[in-house]
Design brief:
The protein has 398 residues and is mostly helical. 82% of the residues lie in helices and 0% in strands. The N terminus is likely disordered. Keywords: Cell membrane, Membrane, Transmembrane, Transmembrane helix, Transport. It is a multi-pass membrane protein. It comes from Shimwellia blattae (strain ATCC 29907 / DSM 4481 / JCM 1650 / NBRC 105725 / CDC 9005-74) (Escherichia blattae).
C-alpha cells in the first residue's frame, strides 16, 4: 500500500507540512489580531473591563457552534474545511480593518476559529499513525506556539507603530493561510452523508459529549485541557493589566513580549512531552500542571522585568509538558468512539466554557477594582488546587 508511509515520512510529508504552515499562519493572524484589536479598544477609549469581553465574544462563537463544527469537519475533506474557516477569519479581520465594530469583526473570526479547530486536529489522525500522534501533536503545538510568539509580538509592536498597518498585516496573513490550505491533500470525508437538521445534530453532539464525559480516560483529558486553556487565556489578559500596575510600563508591546516568553517555554515543554510521555503513562504530565499554578503566584509578586521573563518561560515549559499528552489521549480515544472531529468539538466546548467562566470572573474582578497582583495570586492558587484534585482523584476509568 503506497499510503502506508514510514513513520518519518508521515510526520514530514508534504500534506503534514502544509497543515503545519496553514496552522502557523492562521494562529499568527489570531494572536496579532487580538493585540491589534486591544489597541483599537484602547484608542476608542473602551473601559478596561471590556478587554476580556472581546475574547468572550470569540469564545461564545465556539460554544454556540460546538454542536455543528465536529460534524462539519467529519463530513467534508478536512483541508477544505480549514480553508473555508480561514476565509471567515480573513473576513472578520478585514471588517475590523475597515473600521466596523471590533466586537462584531472579532465574533466573525471566532466563528472561523470554531470551524477550524476540529478539522486541524482531526486531520492529524488521517496523516499519521497512532504511534506518531503524540509527535504530530507536538509539531502542531510547536507551530502554534511559534505563531503565538511571533504573532503576539508583531501585533503589539505594529500597533505601537501604526494601528492600520497592524490590522492590514493580519488580513494578509489570513490570506496566506487560505493559500497554504490548498496544498493539503484532499482526503475522503471521515463520516459523510449525515443528517444536517439542527435538532438531530444537537442530539448527536450531546450523545458524543455524554460518551466522552462518561469514559474515565477522556474525562480526565477534557478536564485537564479545559482548565489549562481557560487559565492560559485569562493569564494573557492579566498580563495586559499587570504590566502597568507592577512594572509601570504602559506600551502595547511589553505584554506581548511577556506572552512570547510563555510561548517559548511551551515549545520546549511540548518537545519534552513528545520524548518522555506516551499514551500509556500519560499521568506523568500532571505535576507540571500543579507547578503552573505555583509559578503564577510567584510571578504575580514580581516587580522587575527579568525575573518576570524567566518565570513566564518556566510556566510555558510546564504548560507544554502538561497539555500535549492530554490532547493526544483525547484524539486517540475520541477517534475510536465518536470520531476525531466530534471529539475535538466536545473538547472545544469544555475549553471554551472554562475560558468563558474564567474570563467572566476576571472581568468581574477588574470591574470591582481588585488589584492585578491580587488577581494573579488568587488565580494561581485556584489553578494549582484544581489540577492537584484532578491528579489525585482515584479511579479515572469507567
Amino acid at each position: 500500500m503506497h499510503n502506508q508511509a514510514a513513520p518519518d515520512d508521515a510526520i514530514w510529508s508534504r500534506g503534514m507540512m502544509a497543515v503545519i504552515a496553514a496552522q502557523f499562519l492562521s494562529a499568527f493572524g489570531d494572536n496579532a489580531l487580538l493585540f491589534a484589536t486591544l489597541a483599537v479598544l484602547k484608542q476608542l477609549v473602551y473601559p478596561e473591563w471590556s478587554q476580556p469581553v472581546l475574547q468572550m465574544v470569540f469564545v461564545g462563537a465556539y460554544i454556540l457552534f460546538a454542536p455543528f463544527v465536529g460534524q462539519f469537519a467529519d463530513s467534508f475533506a478536512k483541508g477544505r474545511v480549514m480553508m473555508l474557516a480561514n476565509g471567515l477569519k480573513l473576513l472578520g479581520a478585514a471588517a475590523i480593518c475597515a473600521g466596523l465594530n471590533p466586537f462584531l469583526g472579532y465574533t466573525l473570526v471566532g466563528i472561523g476559529a470554531a470551524a477550524y479547530s476540529p478539522a486541524k486536529y482531526g486531520i492529524l489522525g488521517e496523516l499519521t499513525t497512532g504511534s506518531q500522534l503524540v509527535k504530530a501533536n507536538g509539531l502542531m503545538e510547536a507551530s502554534t506556539i511559534a505563531a503565538i510568539l511571533t504573532g503576539s509580538v508583531a501585533g503589539g509592536v505594529l500597533a505601537d507603530w501604526h494601528l492600520l498597518a497592524a490590522l492590514g498585516v493580519c488580513v494578509l496573513v489570513y490570506g496566506g493561510a487560505v493559500v497554504a490550505n490548498l496544498f493539503i491533500p484532499k482526503r475522503p470525508a471521515a463520516r459523510p452523508g449525515q443528517n444536517w437538521w439542527p435538532g438531530p445534530m444537537v442530539r448527536r453532539f450531546l450523545a458524543a459529549c455524554r460518551t466522552l464525559w462518561l469514559d474515565g480516560e477522556t474525562r480526565f483529558s477534557l478536564l485537564g485541557t479545559s482548565l489549562f486553556w481557560g487559565a492560559g487565556v485569562t493569564l494573557r489578559f492579566l498580563l495586559v493589566l499587570w504590566v502597568p500596575a507592577a512594572l509601570g510600563i504602559t506600551d502595547n508591546a511589553t505584554p506581548t513580549y511577556l506572552n512570547a516568553m510563555v510561548a517559548i517555554g511551551i515549545v520546549a515543554g511540548a518537545g519534552a512531552a513528545a520524548k518522555l510521555v506516551t499514551l500509556a503513562n500519560v499521568r506523568r504530565c500532571m505535576p507540571a500542571g500543579v507547578l503552573i499554578g505555583a509559578l503564577v503566584v510567584v510571578f504575580a509578586l514580581q516587580t522587575q522585568l527579568l525575573p518576570a521573563y524567566v518565570l513566564l518561560v518556566l510556566i510555558g515549559v510546564c504548560g507544554g509538558f502538561f497539555v500535549v499528552p492530554l490532547n493526544a489521549l483525547l484524539q486517540e480515544r475520541g477517534k475510536r468512539s465518536v470520531g476525531a472531529g466530534n471529539a475535538i468539538a466536545v473538547q472545544n466546548l469544555g475549553e471554551n466554557a472554562a475560558m468563558l467562566l474564567m474570563l467572566g470572573g476576571y472581568s468581574l474582578a477588574v470591574k470591582t477594582g481588585a488589584p492585578a497582583v491580587g488577581i494573579g495570586i488568587g488565580f494561581g492558587v485556584l489553578f494549582a488546587v484544581a489540577i492537584a484534585l484532578l491528579w489525585l482523584k482515584p479511579g479515572r476509568r469507567g
